[in-house]
Amino acid sequence: MPRSFTQLTMDERRIVSQMLQAKARLAQIASVLGRHRSTVHREIRRNWWHDKEVPQADGYWHVTAQTLYEQRRRSYRKLHQHPQLCHVVIDRLKAGWSPEQIAGRLKREPDAQHRLCHETIYRYVYSEDGQSQALARHLPERRRKRKPRYARRPRSLVFPDFMAIRNRPAQINDRGQFGHWEGDLMIFRKEYGQANIATLVERKSRYTVLFRNNDRQSKPIMGRLINELSALPHSARQSITFDRGFEFVSWRDLEAGMGTKAWFCDPQAPWQKGSVENMNKRVRRYLPRDTDLLSLPQQSVRSICERLNTTPRKCLDYRTPTEVFREQLVEIVSLPE
Questions:
Q1: C-beta of residue 244 within 8 angstroms of C-beta of residue 267
Q2: Which part of the chain is CATH 3.30.420.10?
Q3: What is the CATH number of domain 161-334?
Q4: Which residues make Cβ contacts (< 8 Å) with residue 146, sequence separation at least 6?
Q5: Which of 36, 42, 151, 207 qualifies as a cystine partner to 321, CB 3.0-4.6 A?
């Protein structure tokens, strides 16, 4: 069922103002109005009065809030109020101009009686009047419905739900099976460019692979990762767990390139790949955030990697990751086909 929304009335704004002065919480105000808490929050944020000359007058006042709302409403309906301006806008849309180009050109034309924001044009295009004239088909990106402003691209399509970490098999979770890795990127200070370090950790042996990338583009990173691991037997590179960073959107290259499955942490939960997060802290001892990676010899990265892999670990009964990794590889090679 489609969601409907109506603006707050003058009476509702009066209630909001009175309850704010009484120090009521947003949830209480929303309950009294029968509105969602987010609606009340947006109303206060949009119509909060800021007075530079008299800071004591700052606040939410229902009369002022209604005035601000009506001013915005008038600007949204400018094309309805001025038919000649609307005719000019429609002609330029049909000529292939974008709303931003139309608005920008009107500001430069000395004889233009009105000015517009490109957002006003978009609102008109997707209004009932604009849809009845099929104006959206003249836009550079022809959409029947408008995408929400500032909306992020839905990542559920990039990182499918069936590949979420909660669906990862138990033998991977309990580290009982060899050949399952975790991957991450270590980012450094912006003034040194986009260079970064990719970290790969095998979950059972804690064996670590480090390599440098000159940027954060996903395809080159995945290509380099495939080069690093493809020499291993398939049983030693069965899966890799990532977070949902844009650096890993080309995960399909793993399956196509070497048959390695990808798993993904839940949104905003990189701690779920704890092995590589722990290893990143260890690597930071040698590569702090202010390291200029582009001036760092590749041999230095290999030396750090070797030091980490030859250091005894308590979780491995004080064996080194290299020793455990080699033992597991020997077992794989010795297994009958």
A1: yes
A2: 161-334
A3: 3.30.420.10
A4: 122, 126
A5: 207
